[in-house]
User: Fold this.
Amino acid sequence: MSFRTFILSLSVSFGVAWLAIIIVPYFKMRSLEPVSMGEEESGTNAVYVPKRAGRIADGSQVYAENGCYLCHSQLVRPTYAGNDLFRPDWGGFVYDDERGDSRRETNAYDFAGEDFAHIGVARIGPDLSNLAVRVENNYAKGGSAEKWLYNHLYDPRREPERRLSTCPAFRFLFEEKKITGNPSDEALPFTGKDGEEVIPKPEARALVSYLLSLKKDQPVPASLDFAPAKAEAAASPAPAATPAP
Amino acid sequence: MSTENSNNSTQAVRFRAEIDRSLRHPVMFFMTSGAAWLAVSLILGIISSAKLHAPGFLDGCAWLTYGRVQVAHVNTLIYGWGFQAAFGVIVWMMSRLSRQTCKAAGLILTAGHLWNFGVTVGTLGILFGFSTGMPWLEFPSFAWPVLLLSYFAIVIWSVIQFKVRPEGHVFISQWYLLAAIIWFPWIYLTANLLLHVFPGNPVMAYGICAWYKSSLIFLFFTPVALGTAFYLTPKVTGRPIKSYSLAKLGFWSLAIIMPWAGMQKLAGAPIPYFIPYLGAAATILFFVPAFTAAINILRTAFADMETVNNSPTLRFSIAGVFGLIVMAFAAVFLNLPNSTLPLTQFSLSGYGFEILALYAFFSFVMFGAIYFIVPRVTSREWLSSRLIKMHFFFSLYGIVTIAIMAIFGGLMQGHGQEKWEQPWIEVSLFARPYAWMTTIAWCFILFSNIFFFLHLTFMWLRLGRRSTHPTLLASVHGHSPHGEEGDIDNVGSGTASAH
Assistant:
């Protein structure tokens, strides 16, 4: 085999796969087509606009720089690929007050505003796709979701039920400042030195704002939302949903 | 007639020595700085692994947080150690196989320094919080053009040497090395251009990252290690490779199947449905190129068991080939859709598989190559067979433990993740004992590599033995697999001619 045929065969064997699974899908997915909400199911023919608020770009950068993706995923897989949907509150709620079963799998619009989807490497910690809703409804218990997240980042093992958590403490995202005048509203309930208070740095603010944008509570078009039906058909996991009050 | 023959062979020996001498500095530079990066990576690996079961360890310090140390550990292992070991082996072996002295040693050495500069700045970038967050491409984005440029400046000479070589047989090793030389820039450029220059859909961007990881393993580290094993085994045993057509099958199946692998990490993600399952299928099919190559190499080596036992080179590289076999089994076992794939997609076994590929297979073969090449380029022999044995056994115990712990621990962890009825905290406790064992195993590997590093440094300082008896692992220095006294480059007990 001559050098030229060798190079040519290598290029063809590699190039076919390269085009088929990288180049073509990548450029086809560069601009996603707008999806209609579906007139039959939702009564409106409006275009689905994913809503996401917060400091997504710089928060996502802080998330990346500190390697959060090593332990936390952001992917709720459909039932054919895993049992994520059955976990209470990972993909929505089984008993949502307003919408009944609001669970759904991740769709391509969930990462709006980010350059790189932090789907994650491993799940040493829980999936974060629906973290904001979880914090607001379950963890913060009526308090401020933001404060709960600051406290959690500062010391993940503070609450007795989380004493076994292996999440690193991100104390370096906070600073100790001298109290001048009234104590800051944002001060964490951790005592620094005398006359000092613990306050989140800009990085921590960006990160928390980003984490609070991780929600799955917006109704999505029926064409993207087939998870609960599928889930029930696949395994009938939870007891029959109680009718919404 | 016989005088003519012996004249020819003396000339050949002289010429080989000349090639070795022309490459002394670049090769020794890549190997010693690679080994130094390996030590750095192992220390970082121990720290990060300890944090998985003792989160309070070295806590609260920005550059020592788990998310940075673990990333730095993996990146230094790949770009610091893996690539530099590969460079050393590629430039040396391609020169030898193309029968060309190296005429660009100075340039290669300069490019090597540039590569090290890129890796150093990139690693510091990760530790001080400028990581890109893209698995295995975490170096801040200014690093990739530097690395790519120095890569070209290092390997281009090997391609030129191949082009201008005297007509003749193309060795199996040359296919693998040339292919690796060509595949890597293609993969690296694709990933970096698409991620940094033409941003697209974020999910597909993650997919490209997953493909990059898998391609780096299967289309760079695997062919470099296989090319090396295909060189060392016949060279040290002095027997030709058993089957040329089997080797051909192994090579082309690698080239055709493996570019499709990698995206199985996105099973269930919003990308076209066929891509992840195609990736899983291709990864499972890795057993075809792996087993054909492994069987070929092992059949060649096992014709001469005594040499395999005695020669440090063969002992390491044959252990590496066993690593390849385990890795191929793992590729099948961890990627079965509907059974193990959902369990391994987000568990420790992904890391386990990577370490299996990078250390149990690739690094072991590289150690074998280093034990072969360094005495030739320094014209000194290794100081102590005991140091080599320590290196071998502690590395072996360490890597076997890590492979078992990460892969089975990962499966257990994945099993826990899928049990949605149980609270999440139960799942994270599943992995903890395995994380403990992994930390201990990394300590073993670090311990073993201290011996290696010291030994290599002595050799680099040219403090090796001035002898023509190669250092063997047998207790008696009687029968030498490297050849009789007087020519360390002679072939062994078989009859095939050396190249």
